[in-house]
Amino acid sequence: MRARITGTGSYAPPKVLTNRDLEAMVATSDEWIIERTGIRERRVAASGEACSDLAVRAAEQALRAAGVRAEDLDLILLATCTGDYPLPATACLVQHRLGAVRAAACDLSAACCGFVYALSVADAYVRTGMRHVLVIGSEVMSAILDWSDRNTCILFGDGAGAAVVSGVQGDAGILSTHLRSDGGLHELIAVPAGGSRLPLSEKVIAEKMNCVKMKGNETFKVAVRMLEEIARETLASNNLTVEDIDLYVPHQANIRILKAVAERLGLPLEKIMLNLDRYGNTSAASIPIALDEAVRQGRIKEGSLVMLGAFGAGLTWASALIRW
Ligand code: COA
Questions:
Q1: Which whole-number Å values give the CA distances from 264 to 91, 184, 233, in the listed order?
Q2: If you average pLDDT over every residue of the chain, what do you get?
Q3: Which of 89, 125, 207, 243 could form a disulfide with 107 if both were Cys (CB 3.0 to 4.6 A apart)?
Q4: Are residues 208 and 151 located together in one domain of the fold?
Q5: Counting Cβ atoms within 10 Å, is residue 183 exposed (0-12), middle (13-18) or buried (19+)?
Q6: How far does residue 52's CA lie from ligand 1's centre (Å)?
Q7: Which DSSP symbol is given to 127?
Q8: Domain of 47: which CATH number?
Q9: Average of pLDDT values for 84-96?
Q10: At which of 169, 196, 222 does a domain end?
């Protein structure tokens, strides 16, 4: 039995925040943001719109595309670092709203790698007997940004993507997944306060310690190295080469990171799915949104060899190889 992605879906809130809008908020410019990141605009959730609201929309679309009923789901895995509440898991809220009455539900925390990590868990469960697992990446990054910090607030956006993973016979499906971590680099991207180390207080909120802090330049360098390394490992373990890849669907953080990785791997840019210009970095949602757009645009067809590649806070990095 193989685990196959039988349907995808995505949702981004309608409100668009352009680089020009950001010029009015911090000392930055449209030109600087486009040149250094490739991002032109991002989506921002409405006031009161939370992670589960976005997740449900993406999930409903994925279930429709897969032709799977919510009642038939065995498990819902929601990758996020911006859940509705610290407790309970946002996946439970999604389970209830979808009417997935038989499904177990839990969140998975692996930052921007969350979707690929969750896909790997789904793959393992489906190959050992589960029939249908719903994997979602959903983020409201706007809720954890310091909107006065130009180093971070220009990079991120809100959105959700989902995939139904089902057990099927045959050669198509998830061929392999590869997961890595290095907690020695946990300070490169972090939200320092709001957990048990530094609980929320007036002081930490005043200091914006409950918002994303990032060492962008160092992150950039390790990201390039990690994405290249894990892509090579993934191909080697399947006895395939870069030429075999039909579409690379990477985490959408920065166009310069992806150009550097493409150059190192010898992968033409046309084989990379890019939509970061319209969404920015949506953390765990970025890969499933890009995957869904690639499917709907016809860039992924039955038989296509698709590689996913992610890196993020933790640090974590991950990949998956899929015969569609
Ligand atoms: N607008 C204008 N100037 C800015 C700016 C902004 N939004 N943000 C930073 N700068 C300035 C810096 O203050 C610095 O000025 P200085 O030289 O006077 O000190 C200068 O631009 C260069 O900063 P630096 O951080 O070296 O730029 P960079 O080329 O590394 O680009 C990032 C910054 C954040 C775009 C880039 O490092 C990056 O994308 N890193 C990876 C981040 C990432 O992907 N994180 C998510 C991981 S999941």
A1: 38, 25, 14
A2: 98
A3: 89
A4: no
A5: exposed
A6: 31
A7: H
A8: 3.40.47.10
A9: 98
A10: 169
Does 179 lie in the same domain as 316?
yes
Which residue, by CA, sits nearest to atom 9 of ligand 1?
151
Q: Residues near 175 by Cβ (< 8 Å), separated by ≥ 6?
A: 238, 321, 322, 323
- Cβ atoms of 137 and 161 within 8 Å: the answer is yes
Give the per-residue pLDDT at 252: 98
Tell me, in angstroms, the distance from the centre of ligand 1 to residue 222's CA: 15
Structure tokens at 38: 């490739």
Backbone angles phi, psi at 311, to 5 degrees: -150, 155
254 lines ligand 1 (CB under 6 A): yes
In this structure, the answer to whether residues 165 and 183 fall within a common structural domain is: no
Dump pLDDT digits (tens) for 1-49: 899 999 999 999 999 999 999 999 999 999 999 999 999 999 999 999 9
Strand partners, 170: none
Paired tokens of 52? 């589960």
Domain boundary among the residues 169, 187, 217 is at: 169
Residue pLDDT, tens place only, 114-138: 999 999 999 999 999 999 999 999 9
Query: For residues 248 and 157, what is the distance between their CA atoms, to the nearest angstrom?
Result: 21
Q: Verify that 141 and 260 share a domain, yes or no.
A: no
Are 111 and 51 part of one and the same domain? yes
Distance of CA 19 from the midpoint of ligand 1 (Å) = 15
Domain that holds residue 234: 175-323
Residue 215: Cβ-neighbour burial (10 angstroms; 0-12, 13-18, 19+): middle
Are 10 and 156 part of one and the same domain?
A: yes
Structurally, how many domains does the chain consist of? 2
Q: State the greatest distance between any 2 C-alpha atoms of the chain, in Å, as a whole number.
A: 57
Around Cβ 148, how many Cβ atoms within 10 Å? 12
